[in-house]
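Project outcomes to date are best conveyed with an example. Our students and postdoctoral researchers have been running inverse folding experiments weekly, and each run begins with a structure described purely in tokens. The record below, which covers 341 residues, was selected by the lab manager from last quarter's runs and is presented without edits.
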């Protein structure tokens, strides 16, 4: 049986050529374009509800979040009107247990919590407290807050990255509102972008500006602190290469990071929780903005070369080793697995 995915991308309002959200499938390593599921303006990030046949899209350059009913396996229909968000909304995460959708906005730094109605449609959001730059100096120019990702932890708390303020924030989601529990300041200039949580409780943060992976661990009180940081290999240079997505392949206990500018996927093993660089290999395209795991392979959204690549992983070291198939797709930025309810 084939596996199916939704793909978002940048349309002309975001400098790309995508027409909207597409459906794709893969069977035995071969990718297939299943057509345009629905037209949309720069649906740069997608999130699927885990229980309802609903897909959410961040319409980045419109500053809106849209909900769609999933019709069959390759078509979408609007579920209500798009709801306003902040400037350059770039990421969405479904907090199903709390009945909310969390949105991160790169342009103005806002983090928003949208109540999810019973049918999956969205109500008006509440706005989380604004980030305070831990490195602010009185009398100096303020740095812009750049919210980039939100993730629901196994505890039910929400964790968000602020690329502009070099910090990670942990929230409690109570009655539809985000209440700040802790702010973890990293190093000035790190630029935390995306993160994943390991079943051990460790959190791995990839930084866009310093090009590293930072491990965060919690103490007995549940407060997080930095416990290690690891480079992505000697060939990855901060300021020249820009890490994007980070993923965890749990069966092999490895981290995978797409590095824009370097045209590679970097692979790190976990040694007693500490990431250790194992190697990198080409991603078969330009600007690997996002990727997902499909068995012993990766699907990579190469934004600037306009392709989705299916790449097999070496069974011994986990490095991308063979190109299984390629699918031409305009300006892809996000791949979201279809959920079988």
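After processing, the design step wrote out the following sequence:
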């Amino acid at each position: 049986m084939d596996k199916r995915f939704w793909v978002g991308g940048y349309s002309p309002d975001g400098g790309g050529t995508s027409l909207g959200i597409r459906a794709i499938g893969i069977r035995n390593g071969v990718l297939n374009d299943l057509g345009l599921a629905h037209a949309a303006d720069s649906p740069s990030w997608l999130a699927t509800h885990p229980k309802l046949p609903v897909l959410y899209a961040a319409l980045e350059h419109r500053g809106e979040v849209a909900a769609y009913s999933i019709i069959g396996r390759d078509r979408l229909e609007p579920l209500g009107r798009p709801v306003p968000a902040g400037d350059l909304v770039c990421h969405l995460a479904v907090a199903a247990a709390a009945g909310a959708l969390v949105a991160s906005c790169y342009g103005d730094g806002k983090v928003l919590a949208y109540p999810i109605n019973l049918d999956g449609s969205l109500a008006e959001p509440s706005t989380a407290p604004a980030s305070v730059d831990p490195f602010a100096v009185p009398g100096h120019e303020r740095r812009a807050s750049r919210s980039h990702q939100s993730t629901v932890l196994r505890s039910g708390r929400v964790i968000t990255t602020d690329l502009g303020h070099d910090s990670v924030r942990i929230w409690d989601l109570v009655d539809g509102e985000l209440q700040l529990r802790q702010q973890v300041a990293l190093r000035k200039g790190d630029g935390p972008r995306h993160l994943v949580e390991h079943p051990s409780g460790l959190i791995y943060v990839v930084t866009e500006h310093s090009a590293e992976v930072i491990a965060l661990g919690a103490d007995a009180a549940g407060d997080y602190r930095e416990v290690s940081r690891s480079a992505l290999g000697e060939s990855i240079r901060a300021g020249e290469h820009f890490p994007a997505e980070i993923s965890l392949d749990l069966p092999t206990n490895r981290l995978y990071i797409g590095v824009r500018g370097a045209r590679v996927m970097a692979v790190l093993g976990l040694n007693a929780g500490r990431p250790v660089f194992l190697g990198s290999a080409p991603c078969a395209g330009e600007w690997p903005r996002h990727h997902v795991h499909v068995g012993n392979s990766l699907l990579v959204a190469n934004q600037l070369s306009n392709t989705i690549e299916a790449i097999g992983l070496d069974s011994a070291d986990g490095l991308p080793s063979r190109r299984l198939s390629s699918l031409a797709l305009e300006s892809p930025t996000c791949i979201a697995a279809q959920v079988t309810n």
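The chain has a mean pLDDT of 97. The longest strand covers residues 30-39. The training component of this project remains on track.
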